[in-house]
Amino acid sequence: MTRLHADHDSESAVLDAAVAAVLAEEVPPGPPPFVLDKLAERGLPSRGGPGSRRWGARVMSAGLAAAVLLCGVLAWQALGTSGSIALADVAQDFRRARNIQFRSVGYVHVRGEGDPAPLWRQVSYTEHNYRAPGLYRMVNFGADGVPWQIVTEDAPRGLKLELRLSEKKAILTDESCAAPFQAHQQFPSALRQIEEMLERGKVRKDLGTREIDGRRVIGLRVSTEAGNEEADFWIDRKTRQIVRYQNPTAEVYDPETDPASPGPVPPDAKTAGTELKGSIVTDIVYDAPLDVAQYVLTPPEEYQLEQTRYRMPTEKDLVEWLEVFARVRGGTFTDDENSPASDPLMADRLWKTPEAEQTEWEKTLQRGYVRQEEVSLWGSGRSVLVGFWTMYRGSWHYQGKGVRLGDTATAVCWYRPAGAADYRVVYGDLSVRDVPAEKLPNRR
Asked: Residue 443, class by beta-carbon neighbours within 10 Å (0-12 exposed, 13-18 middle, 19+ buried)?
């Protein structure tokens, strides 16, 4: 901000300098009514309020006028550029968009064999088009910019078509088993993460302002309530629309400082595993004009068609995967309903452990199914607990933290099947018992 000097000879000069300093600042358009209300709550003078008679009864000095003007601008900036108010505004506009077009860039590390082990970085690009209600299409490109896969989804009907371009293969998947449980979800998974961070996240750090693609943007580092995930939002300060979204934050992974060698991986290289380092969403356009014809679920005639029907997880799946999770975690359940592979530290350990040195439980976790027929399990075995939360949203409860595998007395989770009077309670020894609602274990 331009520095104000106090050595002017006249009050007029002081006021002129103050106003010029304020006008030199790039600020959003005038505050809307709810901001004016906030300014009033903070004690800024307003016409017609308490003390307005005294305020108008005397001549306001130029210095005081400048101070009030500056305070108003700073208060507006504070209210409009950070904190829960900004997130609420951004979330509201995000949900209102009927169509959203965007691009994402994914960064993956490929670790080779040897000492020291070589490390390469592979970059993938995806174009996304979402059209309400529930139509979604993405095109995946290789690092060379050539598309290799097109996926089209019709969420209301529970259908998904995958086209593998080089193979001329089409896979039509029927996920209608999950459609009744997902009717409340507005966005596809590619946008749901952004939606949840906006609605449930808290601003941890103001990243300041910068220019992206010719637009002046505000940076906010947002953390989940549990504090186990953070993302960077860059928001257009005029439209309140998201310009860029990075997960994890640039503090955790920054492509500009990535020490890995740029890909591609040499054809003769021996690799030990891969790890997703991060992704950046860019080129976001709200209410883009999208043609409904691009969401066709009929594969081209020259493509070989393969059809798959998914099923929802059963209680047997639940018990089996609870054991897998506990075994991989050393024989103890945790408070995390997600797969152990979703824990960055655990994922890093599994990634760095050669398959020959992994336990059978770790191999099962990596594979995603216990038996071959589980390939048709919705979301894979790693998502069974999330699947039960989706299916039994009103009755599902999980409290596995600290429970040892084999504990016969302590409950890990429970749910009530549709139409049943009693709950099904799973204990640490993986036994399942019918328990009336009034005799359920105390929640921990």
From this structure: exposed
180 contacts: CB under 8 Å, gap ≥ 6: none
- Pick left, alpha or beta for residue 236 (phi over 0 → left; psi -120 to 50 → alpha; otherwise beta): beta
Residues 61 and 196 in one domain: no
320 within a domain of the structure (yes/no): yes
Based on the domain organization, do 234 and 381 belong to the same domain?
no
Same domain, 75 and 98: no
278 part of a folded domain? yes
Q: Structural domain of residue 350, as residue ranges?
A: 315-439
Please choose, from the candidates 69, 38, 86, 71, the residue with its C-alpha nearest in 3D space to the C-alpha of residue 206: 86
Task: Round to whole Å and give the CA distance between 390 and 394.
Answer: 9
Is the pTM value of this prediction over 0.85? no
Lowest mean pLDDT among 6-15, 102-111, 288-297, 332-341: 6-15
Examine the pLDDT at 14 and tell me if it is beyond 50: no
Element (H, E) at 309: strand 304-309
